């Protein structure tokens, strides 16, 4: 606790200093008018002296014994009574002092002037100040409000703990696991409360509870595969998420499009290496590849390959903050009229960035997500938060740099295990996601 004296030519100024130094919640212990000699003259000036403290001098109410409902009602009633008792000028001591000339400020300074006219209280030290009229009017009110605040905070924490105490032990363990894996507290709690509220056969059997828990996680992921009828498929996304590598994997991994006849189109002419990168994969796999420099060329090329089953378009990576480049991408996609626009998102990105990426790349009609670089994350709890904010289907996951092997169709069971089971996740990583 800090106790300090402030002397200023006006009461408003003294109170302003109190607020500036001790904060909005400062408590006025004592105020009075004093007379001071000027530095260069013998003439006396009237000054205002305010003694104030930080608010932490009130002991916190005993926590265990509190009957919350009644005590809050009582404290509220007391505070309301005090508010009624006190006139406009004492409504909000600290705030009103910040508005010189305001009705409240004038009232307040009158109040202080009036009390100081009667001279300093008998005992003008701090103890005396505590007993003074000023204290009883202003500080009792603040005391009550302070007490009320403490009780409400206390109640809130008891309610929160109470909720968690209602959760069976095994589910509480799952809650802790989720949060250790990186799921936000809000989503983890929502999931566990959902589990706790449902009819689990035996809430004390670890296997049954864990299986039920994983099932609940699975339901949070929206997945699908690419339709047989989707011919023109474009891959978009921020720089370096793995778009070109993914396009190469899609084109060359037999598990993805089987015996479909595939053609590749590169629109990434920003970097010579980018075209070369895709050309290399195309030549190894014996696939035709076209390089497009202007959006208008796209329609003719797509027309040229109309007898092919899949036309995969790789686009240049665009920085999230380069609005022009993102708009240009929009124009390319408009000309291509793809059946699928897949947005590549690196699994390790921050949730806030993922939201921004989704928002910015919505210049194109995104139809699904490819979650890349799953192998680079060390836990998967945050994927539940991602699923919560991405209103799109997750279609593929990529799990390493190897073309064509390191890609797999999304699988709810796998995603649930990645999010909810650290040990299983570590094993999967060691086994190169051999699911
Ligand atoms: N660990 C890991 N690395 C990957 C994965 N996919 C791609 N990469 C690597 O990420 C780097 C960038 O991959 P690219 O395919 O060139 O990424 P891009 O999105 O096409 O990049 P830009 O065209 O420059 O925007 C390369 O080193 C890839 O080998 C993956 O699933 N896991
Ligand atoms: Mg690329």
Please explain how this structure is put together:
The protein is an alpha/beta fold and 435 residues long. It has three domains: 3-162, no CATH class; 166-218; 232-430, Rossmann fold. It contains 18 helices and eleven strands. The chain has helices spanning 11-22, 68-85, 93-97, 103-117, 126-131, 133-165, 169-180, 185-197, 206-218, 243-252, 254-257, 272-285, 297-304, 323-336, 351-360, 382-389, 412-420, 422-430; strands spanning 3-8, 27-37, 44-53, 232-236, 262-266, 289-291, 310-314, 340-346, 368-372, 393-398, 407-409. The strands form two sheets. An eight-stranded mixed β-sheet has the order 6-5-7-4-8-9-10-11, sandwiched between helices. Strands 1-3-2 form a three-stranded antiparallel β-sheet. Mean pLDDT is 79; it is low at 57-68, 86-134 and 154-162. The chain binds guanosine-5'-triphosphate and magnesium ion. The site of guanosine-5'-triphosphate has 20 residues, from helix 10.
